[in-house]
Specification:
Elements: E1 2-4, E2 8-17, E3 25-32, E4 47-53, H1 68-73, H2 77-83, E5 87-91, H3 103-117, E6 124-134, H4 136-146, E7 169-172, H5 181-184, H6 199-204, H7 212-217, E8 231-236, H8 245-256, E9 261-266, H9 281-300
Parallel strand pairs: 4-5, 4-6, 6-7, 7-8, 8-9
Antiparallel strand pairs: 1-2, 2-3, 3-5
Helix pairs in contact: 3-4
């Protein structure tokens, strides 16, 4: 289905992968006005692009959503990013009622490969593809940035040899170390990773403490290395679902490894940028920082 506005053309429900014994995976593509026929930013290489992954604890949520709290604010972050000149692909991935990790990461990589493989047709610069996600989607975006070309996450298939790397990562309140999430939970936590049947347990098919190998394999922190792309991590200091230490510890590890990383902490802000008085200030800050980050990265490459 296609819809058009004066600023944006949106193509919804494009199939980008068909995992074995699973429903086809779809994405929505947001194209700035003029793409692809005139998709040039003065460099002659096509527009930069961002692949977005939704949150929902890997067990719920849907593409093109930033979660119920952010969606209700009506700020349209994806559309704002597209209006800033980026092609945005918001992609499905298998939820935990269909498959456990690493299925979700394999799907995220498939979305990147699809966009790179189809870059010319949509006016995308294949060297300027970035990843962005919120919560569980932020976890996947971080993993994309840290596991490019990893043999353990390579699936056989027609597009397996296409580059799955991204040139930068923006992650909102991402889980990054499943083994430490439980101990980092604040006293007023709504959910803890070590709770029976937690979202993290559903993701890996076992309690993290009982399966440390699986927990580490699903944790972005495990894959930090000196050649990671630039990262932007944004987290609320009052997050009751994903402890803020998940972002601060990953930022520290990336910095120690010599990588470029920006960390933005939003004071007294809960998950999905919820605030005590319900204002949209934190969400607006996060959106502006995200667009600014991707702009800087796209101008440098």
């Amino acid at each position: 289905m296609e819809s058009t506005t004066t600023e944006l053309r949106t193509l919804r429900g494009i199939e980008f992968a068909r995992p074995l014994n699973a429903d086809p995976l779809l994405l929505d593509l947001y194209l700035p006005e003029g793409a692809p026929a005139a998709a040039r930013d003065g460099r002659g290489t096509g527009r930069p692009a961002v692949v977005h992954f939704h949150g929902g604890g890997w067990r719920t949520g849907e593409r093109s959503s930033l979660g119920p709290v952010v969606d209700r604010l009506g700020l349209s972050p994806i559309e704002q990013l597209a209006a800033a000149g980026f092609v945005v692909a918001s992609a499905d991935y298998r939820l935990t009622d269909a498959a456990t990790f690493p299925a979700q990461l394999l799907d995220a990589k498939a979305a990147v490969r699809w966009l790179r493989n189809n870059a010319a047709g949509y006016g995308v610069d294949p060297d300027r593809i970035y990843a962005w996600g919120d919560s569980a989607g932020g976890h996947l975006a971080c993993l994309l940035g840290l596991t490019a070309g990893a043999a353990e996450f390579r699936e056989p298939g027609g597009t397996a040899d296409i580059d799955d790397s991204v040139a930068g990562v923006a992650a909102w309140y991402p889980p990054t170390d499943l083994l430490r999430m439980g101990e980092q939970a604040p006293p007023d936590a709504v959910a803890r990773a070590d709770d029976p049947g937690s979202r993290e347990a559903l993701l890996i098919g076992a309690q993290p403490a009982a399966a440390p190998g699986k927990a580490r394999a699903a944790s972005p922190a495990t894959y930090v290395h000196p050649d990671a792309p630039p990262f932007l991590l944004i987290h609320g200091t009052a997050d009751r679902f994903v402890p803020v230490a998940q972002s601060t510890s990953l930022a520290d590890a990336l910095e120690v490894a010599g990588n470029a990383v920006e960390l933005l902490l939003l004071e007294d802000t809960d998950h999905m940028w919820a605030s005590p008085d319900g204002n949209s200030g934190a969400a607006e800050q996060a959106i502006a920082a995200t667009i600014g980050f991707f702009r800087r990265q796209s101008e440098q490459h």
